[in-house]
Specification:
Layout: H1 5-10, H2 21-37, H3 44-58, H4 62-78, H5 82-90, H6 95-109, H7 117-129, H8 134-147
InterPro entries: DjlA_N, TerB-like
Protein name: TerB family tellurite resistance protein
């Protein structure tokens, strides 16, 4: 179903074209997987959080979301370095969706109840590459923590 997504991201020319909705969501899910794997500890709580985020964003069942996450795991493993991967995605998603992507990344980072420096560094890197300021990312992080019922301090 998502075969060829990487080639559509990195090979097709000329100029970036918006991704089809399903491809865009899998590419963004791959970023979520990359954040979850940043600390070399990718557990079930992070997988479940990614599934919940995907289901919520697109009105999917948890089974459909899990299928997209599985595709995203394969794509993430094959994707080039984070800088190149994120830049390609940035050129293909709407600006107004980027803060939603950052919120989803913070949600995944805190899914396992651990504040990992590697995951936070990854989010800071991706935020900058997506054109999101550190301030906006920090405000988004605070909102996510509040929604999760945690102290943002």
């Amino acid at each position: 179903m998502f075969q060829g997504l990487l080639s559509r991201l990195f090979v097709e020319a000329p100029g970036p074209k918006p991704l089809a909705s399903q491809d865009a969501e899998v590419a963004l899910a791959a970023l979520l997987v990359r954040v979850a794997r940043a600390d070399d500890h990718y557990d079930q709580s992070e997988r479940q959080r990614i599934d919940a985020i995907l289901a919520r964003r697109r009105g999917l069942t948890l089974h459909e979301a899990a299928e997209r996450r599985a595709a995203a795991e394969m794509i993430e493993a094959e994707a080039p370095d984070t800088v190149r991967f994120t830049r390609e995605i940035k050129d293909r998603i709407a600006l107004d969706d980027r803060l939603g992507v950052i919120a989803a990344m913070w949600e995944v980072a805190y899914a396992d109840d651990q504040r990992g420096a590697d995951e936070e560094s990854m989010i800071r890197l991706v935020s900058g590459l997506l054109g999101i300021t550190d301030r906006d990312s920090a405000l988004t992080r605070q909102k996510v923590l509040e929604q999760m019922g945690r102290d943002p301090g």
